[in-house]
Every structure is written in structure tokens, then in C-alpha cells.
Amino acid sequence: MNSPRRLKWQYPVIAVVAAGAVGFGLMHASASPAASGAAAKKKPGATELIKSDPPPTLFTDAQVAGLAKQQAAQKHTADALFAKWKAAHGSTRDDKAFSAWAAQQVPAPPGKADRTAELHQVQTLAKSRTAAGKKAATWLETHGKGDIWKLYAHDQRELLPKEQGSVEKAELKTALKLAKAITEKVAARDKQPAPYVLDPSLRPDKHLTAGQKGPYSYPSRHAAKAAAAVTLLGDWSPHRAEDYKAMAAQVVYSRLYMAGHVPSDLTAGTLVGDLVGDYFRNAAATSAASK
Description:
- By secondary structure, the protein is mostly helical.
- It has helices at 11-29, 33-41, 46-52, 61-89, 95-105, 112-126, 131-143, 147-157, 162-190, 195-198, 221-236, 241-257, 263-289.
- The longest helix has 29 residues, at 61-89.
- It is globular, with a radius of gyration of 20 Å.
């Protein structure tokens, strides 16, 4: 299938929930001006952010297929690595120790010659950009770190008992935060400039200063968060797992398309996210078994 993708979440459900929330807020605004003022300052959630910035037509399956295949390959690597952590630590949660361990599992970035070859790949792709592609990539870059995954989780919670939905919401939030922390730890260690830093013509909108070295792009934070979210969301709603994988491929491809990353940044980020997903899955499975 080569047709452009559109997101597969439940807009009718979201619309009903949002309408109810607005109605509730209006009812209480007249009764409590202070509460109304506090609500006005509240940071918009994923539902509100995406409702105010709906997705454009995204990339075709054919465009993202190559990176999707690489993501799948990283999952096998991550599972094998995580088995070692599990053998040593069991199901005990120790986020600090796991974060340090996971960072150590990320291989060193490619050598200069290989990374230069990857940069050329990004430069070649940049020449084929279209207005529609830029629009899709910009939307995915904006919402791909968290909003998309939180909105998917929101959809799932609509059909769950309140307590279970709250637990899953908190777990996803923690997993995304941990994935971010690990990628930042590795990025600070390896200091690999993003493609558009090496070639500013790839993203003239970034307005870099002379001699700027960062931001560092190895490994990709977007890829790490996407991979972690895919594992958790897929466990919670297996019948939608393929949709989550397809969206992760979209997010990851957008980072290549707009020169935020080279391929090795993305595979390394996916590895981090897969490890984080396995870590939370392992803890959750043991917790469920004990009940």
C-alpha cells in the first residue's frame, strides 16, 4: 500500500470527551472565578494540542518501509540485551541503575567515513523534499516526542476502568521521560552533531551560529520515545499494535527527511526505546502476576 497515511485514532471519542470537558469547565467558571483563572493557565494536553493542530497527510508506506524494517531489527537486538539485565536484576524496578546500564548498551556511533556517507544520504533525500513532505515532517517532529503517544493512550483509557487508565497514563509518561534521559546521557557522551549542524543548508530555519557544535543527534530522542511507546501501547491494546508501529515509522522517517538525524541516530534511538519498553513490560508482567 503506497497511499499517504492518516492517523488512526478515535476522533469521535476525543471530540465527545473534549466537549464534555468544556461544558464542565463552563459550568464551574461562573461558580469559581479563581478556578477559571487557574484553568486558563493550565498547559494544554495532547488532545487539545492535536485538535488545534490536526495532522496533514503523512508519508506513504513505501517511503517509510526501509526505516520500519530497521526498527524491527533493533527490537530483536534489544530483547537479547534485556535478557541479560533481567537475568541479573529480575523484575525489580531500579530506574537509575537501568538508565546507566541501557546507556552502556548503545554502541559507539559510526566512524567518520560512515557518518559522512550517512550525511550524504540525508543530503540526497533533502533534494527530493516537497511542500507536502515538509508539512508532514514538521507536524511529526512537533508532536512525535509525546503528544501522539499520549493521545493514543488517551483513546485507550476511554474504555478502561478509571484506576487502570490512570496507572497506564503514569507509566507511559515515566517511560517517555526515562527514554529521554538515556538518550541525553549517550548524546553527551558521544557528541555527534546533527546533520543540519554539519550542513546548515539542510535546515536554514535553524539559524546556527558560527562554530556551533550541537545539538547532538546520536541517539534520536524521537526514535527512543516512539519505540518505548509502541511496546507499552501495543501490550495494552494488541489489536492496534500495527497502527502504533506504523506511526513510529512515520515519526522516525520525518527526522531523516528534515535532517534532524542520520540513520544510525535513529537505529540507536530505537534500541534505547526498545530497552525501555522491555524494562517496563517486565516490571508490569511481574506486578500483574502477583495480584
